[in-house]
Each structure stands twice: as structure tokens, then as C-alpha cells.
Amino acid sequence: MDQYYSQVYHQVSSDLENGGVNYKAGLNSNSMKEVSVNGKTPQNISSSIVRKKSDPVLVSSNVRFQMLGYFLTNLQEVILGTKLAVLFPAIPLAIAADYYKLGRPWIFALSLLGLTPLAERVSFLTEQIAYFTGPTVGGLLNATCGNATELIIAILALYQNKIHVLKYSLLGSILSNLLLVLGTSLLCGGLANLKKEQRYDRKQADVNSLLLLLGLLCHMLPLMFRYAIGEGTATDFSTLEMSRASSIIMLIAYVAYIFFQLKTHRQLFDSQEEDEEEEEKAVIGFWSAFTWLAGMTIIIALLSEYVVGTIEAASDSWGISVSFLSIILLPIVGNAAEHAGSVIFALKNKLDISLGVALGSATQISMFVVPLCVVVGWTMNIQMDLDFSLLETGSLAFTIIITAFTLQDGTSHYLKGLLLFLCYIVIAACFFVHKIPQSQISEGRPFTGLFAA
Questions:
Q1: Which residues are in the Sodium/calcium exchanger membrane region domain (predicted)?
Q2: What is the H or E stretch that residue 199 is in?
Q3: CA-angle at 259, arms to 254 and 265, nearest 5°
Q4: Lowest-confidence range among 9-13, 279-283, 378-382?
Q5: Closest CA to 445 of 380, 374, 383
Q6: DSSP codes joined into one string, 210-266
Q7: Does position 420 have pLDDT exceeding 90, yes or no?
């Protein structure tokens, strides 16, 4: 009998350790038929008790372990799957700095550091969702979320009526993509491929250059109109109306560009895929990616609010102009992931992809985010227009023209990249010494409510 119970104990223990309970096999063994009490063996009773009372616990425990394992896998892919993960602690530090009312420059700096990995992870999550939604919806999602950080900062600056911060940050994002991101990509790619001829498809560059020139025209017309007619209330009203009409045209052009890119001429933008490598697959599920994306968007909105609310204090404390912080520092943070990706592809001599990253992002800011802010400001009764002032518009004009000339022959070398990068350094130096009165940073009519007339 003792030997029999020992067998039962070892059988149940073995089944529990292996995660699956095979009670029928145990009950039908020859050893368990030797003893019977009222038609039931002790083994039947024992297994019945275990099955009724323990099976739900085992199933529930397995489900919990599976959910925990699934969450840890997602956590590893989303949070630890980037080299920028070391900057994630800046997020709770920024929140703590705001909660304990520490210095506002500290909140600004920590928020910028926290936004850097978040911007990169948003791009990763949109790519994961694109695996499940198909190329068209995935392309639209990437086009919408590709500059999520810049868009959120712009909307919050608009809501707080900080028009200069808004214009500076959007202008800086365009300049950063065209001169810093593209310039360093061509420079690094040229140095890494000195003995190879670097070529790219001009068609993609021509399309983006035309869109950027259209956006430049819409920026220059309000500026030239104001200088031609002169200052005055009537001029301000006309400039505002012209900007709103131009913004609608720009949004229509951007929708046409998306249709052109994803439908009718998609081959122009898929010209250099890695056919020799294995097809990539999603590493997390659709709903997991969607949930992570929603959560990170909320955190980006919180940190962006910190950035917009503390930028003037950081400017005063550090002795650096608001224009430099907005045009140079903020875009570097927002474009960190795109910058790294573009350089990596250029090092591999895949210039079509590098151009797609840099030019595509600049086009999206110029033709989608800027006019969208004008339209949103229209609904909020805020005077957001396309007049970015003379110095800012001139910098934008020369940047677009220089970039278009640089890309006109379909070939590249390191000198082109170096010159674009030096152009960015010159513009950065200009805005480093550029000072504007604090009273102009928040100029514009006060916010009176959503959709106010």
C-alpha cells in the first residue's frame, strides 16, 4: 500500500511539473486496479479531487504565465529593442521634476531626452502595424505618424498660442531633414563608398523637390504681400486669409502626393528594396502594437507639453535664444531616429532609401503639418499664418534651392554631403545669435474656445 501511494504521488508530481496532467493514463495503470473501496480506488478519489479543485487553478495559472510571458516579450521588443533605451529613464525623471516643481530648465532638458527614444519607437510601432494592415494602409499610417512628435509639439504650441515657437519648430524640422539628415547621410555614405559610384533615382527626388517648391511659394506669397502693401490691420487680415486658402491647396497637393506614392507610381518609391534578404515579419501582434502606440503617443503629448511650457525658461536660464532651441535643438530630437536610419542606409550605398527618409519627412512637414496647423488654428480662432518672417523664409528658400541643385544629376559623393552639412552649421549660427523679444513669442489673439468664430 505504501508503495502504491508512492507511485501515485510521483505520478501526480511528475504531471504537475510537466505542465500537463494525464490522469486517465494514471488511473488505468495495472497497479491502480489492485485496491478498491466501494467500487472506487483511492487513486480515483485522489485524482478526482485533484482534477476538480486543481485543474481550474492550473489553467488559470498557465494563462497568467502566458500573459506575463507575452507582456515581457512585448516589453523586450518595444522598450529594450532600441539602443536609445538608455534614455527612457528620463521620462519618469521629467514627470518627477514637474511634480516636485524643480527648475523648469531641468524639466525641458529631461523632456527632450525622453522624447528621443519615444520618437524612434513610434516609427517602429507603425511599421509593426503596417505588417497587418497591408501596404496602402501601412503607408498612410507611416505618412501620418512619421512626424508624430513634431505634430504634437506644434498642436500644443498652437493651443498655448505660442505662434513663434510653433513656426520655429516646423521650420527647423524642414531644415534639419534637408541639410543635417541628408547632408550627413551623403557625407557618411560617400566616405564609406569612396571606390563605388553612388547613384540614386532622380524621379523620387524630383517629385519631393517640386512639392517643397510649391510649399515655399505658399510661404513666400504672404511675406511678399505684406512687404508690397505695407503694415496694417487690413494687410494682416489679407495675409491670414491668403494663408488659409494656400493651406487648403497644400493639403490637397499632399493628398495627391500620397495617392501618387502609394497607388499610381509606387514603383518610384520602392526602387531599392533588399531582395536578397529574408522578408521581415512582425515581432509583436497588431493589438499589442496599437496599444503601445496609443500609450507612447500620450506620453509624447505630456512631454511635449513640458517642452512647450518651459522653453522660454530654459532660454533665459541657459542664455540661448528661443529661435535656436526651437529651430535647431527640437528638430534634432524629433528626427533622431530618421537621422540614424538614413545614415545607416547611406553607408550601405542605398541612397534611394536615404533620400526617401530625408526628403519624405521634409515634404510631410512642409505640405501636411504646416497647413494643418493653419487650419486647426483657424478653427480655434488663432491667427496662425504662413508668414514665417524674412529671415526664416529666406533660410527655407535657400535650403530648398540648394538641396534641389545638389540632387539634380542623380549621383552623390561626400563633398555634396559636406556642403549641405556646412550650410546647416551656418544657419544654426545665424539663429544662435538671433534674439526676439519675449513679448513676441506668445503673440496672437487669445484662445476663446474650440471652433470659436
A1: 106-262, 289-432
A2: strand 198-199
A3: 120
A4: 9-13
A5: 383
A6: HHHHHHHHHHHHHHHHHHHH-SSHHHHHHHHHHHHHHHHHHHHHHHHHHHIIIIITH
A7: yes
Q: Between 104-133 and 148-159, two packed helices, what is the crossing angle to 10 degrees? A: 130
What distance, in Å, lies between the first and last C-alpha atoms of the chain?
Answer: 91
- Asked whether the predicted pLDDT for residue 430 surpasses 60, the reply is yes
The dihedral over CA atoms of 46, 52, 58, 64, expressed in degrees to the nearest 10, equals -160
Mean pLDDT for the stretch of residues 76-81: 77
Cα 385-151-293 angle, rounded to 5 deg: 160
The span from the CA of 310 to the CA of 423, in Å, is 29
| Residue at grid coordinates 486669409 | 241
The single-letter code of the amino acid at 319 is G
The DSSP symbol for 433 reads S
- CA torsion through residues 56, 61, 62, 63, sign: positive
Distance CA 119, CA 219 (A): 27
374 has a pLDDT exceeding 80: yes
> Which stretches of 136-189 are assigned E, i.e. beta strand?
none
Task: State the Cα–Cα distance between residues 430 and 323, nearest whole angstrom.
Answer: 10
Has residue 251 got a pLDDT over 90? yes
Closest CA to 241 of 360, 350, 138, 375: 375
Q: Which is nearest to 370 in space by CA: 220, 154, 196?
A: 154
Which residue's entry shows cell 529613464?
89
Look at residue 210 and tell me whether its pLDDT is greater than 90.
Answer: yes
Report residue 293 as a C-alpha cell: 502606440
Residue 118's Cβ-side half-sphere holds a number of Cα atoms within 13 Å equal to 30
Kindly tell me the sign of the dihedral angle through the C-alpha atoms of 317, 323, 326, 332: negative
Residue 124 CA to residue 256 CA, distance in Å, equals 26
Give the model's pLDDT for residue 63. 61
128 has pLDDT over 90: no
Query: Hey, which residues does 40 pair with through a beta bridge?
Result: 37
Question: Is residue 291 within 8 Å of residue 129, measured between CB atoms?
Answer: no
